[in-house]
Amino acid sequence: MKIKVGIIGATGYTGNELLRLLMRHPKVEINALSSHSFEGKMYSEVYQNYTQLCETVLVSEDEAIEKSEVVFACLSSGLSEKIAGKCLGKKKLFIDLGSDLRLSDREEYKQWYGLDFINEQVHANAVYCIPELNRRKLTEIASAKTTGLIANPGCYPTAAALALAPLIDGATPMIDLNTIIIDAKSGVTGAGRTPSSATHFPELNEGLSAYKVAEHRHTPEIEQTLSGLAGRKVRVVFVPHLLPINRGILTTVYANALDTDLSGIRNIFADYYKNSGFVRILKSGVTANLKSVKYSNYCDISLHFDVRTNRVIIMSVIDNMIKGAAGQAIQNMNIALGLPENAGLDYIPPSF
Amino acid sequence: MKIKVGIIGATGYTGNELLRLLMRHPKVEINALSSHSFEGKMYSEVYQNYTQLCETVLVSEDEAIEKSEVVFACLSSGLSEKIAGKCLGKKKLFIDLGSDLRLSDREEYKQWYGLDFINEQVHANAVYCIPELNRRKLTEIASAKTTGLIANPGCYPTAAALALAPLIDGATPMIDLNTIIIDAKSGVTGAGRTPSSATHFPELNEGLSAYKVAEHRHTPEIEQTLSGLAGRKVRVVFVPHLLPINRGILTTVYANALDTDLSGIRNIFADYYKNSGFVRILKSGVTANLKSVKYSNYCDISLHFDVRTNRVIIMSVIDNMIKGAAGQAIQNMNIALGLPENAGLDYIPPSF
Amino acid sequence: MKIKVGIIGATGYTGNELLRLLMRHPKVEINALSSHSFEGKMYSEVYQNYTQLCETVLVSEDEAIEKSEVVFACLSSGLSEKIAGKCLGKKKLFIDLGSDLRLSDREEYKQWYGLDFINEQVHANAVYCIPELNRRKLTEIASAKTTGLIANPGCYPTAAALALAPLIDGATPMIDLNTIIIDAKSGVTGAGRTPSSATHFPELNEGLSAYKVAEHRHTPEIEQTLSGLAGRKVRVVFVPHLLPINRGILTTVYANALDTDLSGIRNIFADYYKNSGFVRILKSGVTANLKSVKYSNYCDISLHFDVRTNRVIIMSVIDNMIKGAAGQAIQNMNIALGLPENAGLDYIPPSF
Amino acid sequence: MKIKVGIIGATGYTGNELLRLLMRHPKVEINALSSHSFEGKMYSEVYQNYTQLCETVLVSEDEAIEKSEVVFACLSSGLSEKIAGKCLGKKKLFIDLGSDLRLSDREEYKQWYGLDFINEQVHANAVYCIPELNRRKLTEIASAKTTGLIANPGCYPTAAALALAPLIDGATPMIDLNTIIIDAKSGVTGAGRTPSSATHFPELNEGLSAYKVAEHRHTPEIEQTLSGLAGRKVRVVFVPHLLPINRGILTTVYANALDTDLSGIRNIFADYYKNSGFVRILKSGVTANLKSVKYSNYCDISLHFDVRTNRVIIMSVIDNMIKGAAGQAIQNMNIALGLPENAGLDYIPPSF
Question: Which residues, including other chains, have CB under 8 Å from residue A313's CB and lie 6 or more apart?
């Protein structure tokens, strides 16, 4: 029997992509789609490409929760904590693609989001999961057959953490933790569906600029993951740039090597991710290309070393809407439900 | 002494491009820029690329009229007729880049724009000018040293009329006037500066669709010009498409040839435009490319003949913001003031 | 047991896309990939996105035929007739994504391709199939459990024929067959994998032009299909344009209506394609958008009528690499093998 | 009387852009264009956009030198040293847009270019000039009315040096010189006119990747400039990325601040460039955008400080073809000839 799932906020870009993937997931059945803005309309009236494919009528948030065993929320900051609370009460698996449950430190949350924890029980129960780094937390949910609140990571934090984890996980980091610089470049879908001057076609097309320089909200989330792995507080410089393309993130990560013998670095990465089918460590001489992972759940990583300056340079690429959002949410669900990790996610990235 | 000009609606895309060109026009001096939305702000606060280049403070419409000998208006439908009236009263040369003065037939204006002529005197005095086709009307203004109201043509009507004029001007058209089909493709700047779902980057990028199929407001304007040239009512099918690029229009025009000997067609075009330096008739075997005219005031035309079906196929390309708007407005001004036609317009289209 | 398939010319763009789709087809197993240029290399060395997904070594053409029950060829003009001959001899199902078997008229083939039929038996046995129009030919192959040579249609001919078929199939066409104009716009992948000046990024990007105006080789193929449906020779004007995007074709088709009452046209199309799940007739007021079918096997069609000129305007959109090539080839295979028509093709077009 | 100039290598992208700018330069007259590949052809046969604008016939290298007082060379590595030698002999002003004369250290040249200095006299006489940093060297040429060999800087080195110079010029650098990281992103025109797999439209479009990670030939050129300013050897990490757009470079530069009081940094930059009209220091809160300088000779710089990590982050943007190549070459010529620095370069960057 298929698992009944619902999507709250189904008409945003993240919800849209989640719907597309879940509709072809072999083990689930979509029981409800909700939308604040389009309640009462058919999904295909909102997105023409869904003509004849999804003519479901959009319902309210509460109806979506009621009808589902697994609830996904794809909402703006501040809107999903309440839903998490309801799901906790009703013992449903809740997966939040928004940012409400990602930071465990209340002070950091206040500082970066300007919001507070309202329902502390929710935060106490939430687990933040990049499956490749936190698989155990998910298998615990699976084996306890318990309900759970899963905080799905942000797009930039996923790409950055996967690029750095093998070098800092454990007692002896291979890089100087004070020297990490993350220069990230993202496609426009990350900015969501709402039109604005900044995303108006002629303003973006053929252009490039950074934004929220060293003050993007994903900064504390990246630091939380890296600090957890390193066992001490790690600070990073994080600068995101907006690319005039639809999808994908490339992060270029720089750090000072602690040991000049980095000959083994590729093996360390390969070993670290040996059970992680969605991470591909590229061969020496190959550079990660955003194109190679688009429309898939893969994260490609290429490793470079500048012997002149003793710097490690790591490139990681993901599709921000899949591994950086909807795909990773499904991957989290799969593990938490004891399904094969790649169920519904075995897409081959197209070459063009 | 330089001519004092003002731009009303200077912060829209058309006004912006007009400003850029006028700032380097050797014979004019920009005395006032007005904007309804940004009055009181500096121009460079609205457009970052104008930093240190235009730090003029935006003023009101009336102040702009007062300070200028030549007034350009770059406004939405229905907003410029009143300004035209004021300029007529104050004996200023008024050039309207909007659509209010383009149609001379009141009924057609009502039907396509849903608006009426309020100030009939304005419409009685307005002259619609594509310089290559209506140069005489402009030289009359110049020689009479009179004030004037010039209706600057729309972008699509410019490209379409230049492609067809040589074949239909005069007593014996070379094509069957009942068979004209105009398939046009335009860059996004034609849609203006206001963000919308339709111009949100991810919605447009890597896509293509037609819009306002056979019901675009430029249809009667095209027909007005062609009918004037042919001396009888001409109807056309006009279908515009929105390209995921910033600038440029390509029109592909189809019509049945009346005479199968079209060997002389290239000469006819070359002769027709022999005094029109901005129209370039391409050599046999060459196809008009939108890229070749971008950032310039040129209109390139290529001529093709399908002997199998006896159809003439004409391609014309222009930069919608220059020859299709701001550049043509300056060209109109130049002639009406007795200046060299290409003053301030001698840009070479970049290759990339 | 899965059907063994092989792809000849697997490293071109068409072969590449076919591979991607076949790798996730539930009923087939890929037994061989051949490539003239890259024989002996691993597939993932040619396309980085296939890292860890396809590390198969490329073999020769003959080895690919030997190992396969179904042979696909993705080759340039003139190269697949010989392979078709071999497959005919060995009683294998052969599906040609090239152009060698498409035209049944030897004189037209000579005229447009500058080539002749060498192996006449091949041409006598080849069936040209757009499944929506020629399903019966395929079910005959299926029921006879016979071998077969299938000529997979070109991308433009698919989009054009699907747009026009319902209006001309049968004794009484609804449009004047002498007035058909097909203005088509295609993404760059249609030009294939070989770099050239015309496909060099800065030459294409932000540009647009037509090419092979009224002399593209797909013209006789379109006419062959339309003539077959209409029962008389049909000639069309066909002008393709090259869009600065990767994928997709939009065709805008114009024709004079024979009957001014076109109120029923939408029903006629819906009825005509009622058993064709991949064709979606859009609702009144909706315009076909290339974006809505990308990465899928769908063909969306929108219908418009210009009452002022009595013209029918039909827009059809397909993904040139899927419904216009690899997807349609699989659809043809599925029917010819008695599999569900949409096996391996049930992709939902992404919204962005 | 106008100065006679010639361009060697006029049909490459750099030569093409130089031609476009020089054709509108008020003080020069183009006397000769040479091209190895297209000698004997008209320029407009090579570039369609030059139809009727440049129908000059391409000549040989020697003829171009003979006919010109100022010779520009736009050639690949290794091809311009010989021309420099000829110009030195004939006492002509030579401006090299290639890389042969850029590095003054013979060993570095060997190491990074795999080439040696053949004519040492050429290298002894060559002056490398970013006008904002080396104006004096140019005014010396001007006042001595001497001939000169000017090495025009590379695109990346220009953007990087302008971003860093004010912080390191002089005895007390404001940043730790061991911590400089330059993450650069460039449009495709930087790769030149020759088609390749890497610049084939579908391979690049909607993609992004780094290339020549920490091994690009512009690295020693950047270090040469920075070391010269700092008075000691400076090493940098330099990683270029290829953007799917035509023009422009954005560099994001990171370095550790030596002094936490960076409140004055904006004033330092403003002061440093107070006589440099093409450098615009953006206001606090504004981020440099590549779009704001395209088609102009400007370099915009925005300054950011990450107080959490004590890092200075500097963004600089230029048009790689203008300030990064042809425009800077003209700027160098202007100063060396005693002309106004911005002669022929006063273009306003278009907003779209």
Answer: A252, A253, A254, A303, A304, A305, A306, D213, D214, D237, D239
D203, D244, D287 ranked by CB distance to A210: nearest: D287
Gap between the Cα atoms of D330 and D341, Å rounded? 9
CA distances from A282 to A254, A301, C209 (A): 18, 6, 39
Residue A100: C-alpha distances to residues A116, B50, B318, C144 (Å): 10, 40, 50, 61
pLDDT value at position B278?
A: 98
D208 sits in which H/E element: none
Alpha-carbon span A33 to A58, nearest angstrom: 5
Burial level of C307, CB count in 10 A (0-12/13-18/19+)? exposed
Containing C305, the helix (H) or strand (E) segment is strand C299-306
Contact D49 B24 (CB under 8 A): no
Please tell me the distance from the alpha carbon of residue B254 to that of residue A292, in angstroms, as a whole number.
Answer: 42
Partners of residue A244 in chain B, C-beta under 8 Å: 201, 205
* pLDDT of C42 higher than 90: yes
* Structure tokens belonging to residue A170: 């454990």
Active-site positions of D read 155
Q: Which chains touch D (3 or more CB pairs under 8 A)?
A: A, B, C
**Stretches in chain D below the pLDDT threshold 50:** none
As a whole number, mean pLDDT of residues C288-308 equals 97
Residue with tokens 């049968």: C170
Reported ipTM: the value is 0.96
Tens-digit pLDDT profile for residues C250-285:
999 999 999 766 778 999 999 999 999 999 999 999
Model confidence, pTM = 0.97
Distance CA A203, CA A199 (A): 7
What are the two backbone dihedrals, phi and then psi, of residue C283, each rounded to the nearest 5 degrees?
-65, 155
H runs (alpha helix) in chain D: 13-22, 43-46, 61-67, 81-89, 106-113, 120-125, 131-144, 155-168, 201-204, 218-230, 265-272, 327-336
Measured CA to CA, the distance from residue C173 to residue C265 in angstroms comes to 12
CB-CB contact of B30 with B57 (8 Å): no
| Residue B34 · residue B61 · CB < 8 Å | yes
The maximal CA–CA distance of chain B, rounded, in angstroms, is 62
The question of whether A129 is a catalytic residue gets the answer: no
Q: What share of residues in chain C are helix, strand, coil (percent, to 5)? A: 35, 20, 45
C16: which chain A residues are within 8 Å (Cβ-Cβ)? 351
How far are the Cα atoms of A263, A348, C121, C252 from residue C352, in angstroms, in the given order?
Answer: 40, 17, 46, 23
Nearest chain B alpha carbon to D11: B351
- Please list every residue in chain B whose beta carbon sits closer than 8 Å to the beta carbon of residue D47: 351
B313, C254: Cβ pair inside 8 Å?
no
Confirm if B209 and C287 have CB atoms less than 8 A apart: yes
Asked if B292 and D53 come within 8 Å (Cβ–Cβ), the reply is: no
| CA dist., res. C172 & res. C166, Å (int) | 11
User: Residue C282: what residue type?
Assistant: L
> Could you tell me which of A337, A328, A341 has the C-alpha nearest to residue A157?
A328
Give the whole-angstrom CA distance, residue C176 versus residue C319.
29
**Are A195 and B193 an interchain contact pair (Cβ–Cβ within 8 Å)?**
no
For residue B260, what pLDDT band results from cuts at 50, 70 and 90?
low
Contact A189 B206 (CB under 8 A): no
**Segment C315-324, tens digit of pLDDT:** 999 999 999 9
Distance CA C67, CA C60 (A): 11
SS3 C259: coil
Q: Which of D212, D310, D199 is nearest to A315 (CA)?
A: D212
Residues of D in contact with C204 (CB under 8 A): 201
**How confident is the model over A225-247, as a mean pLDDT?**
98
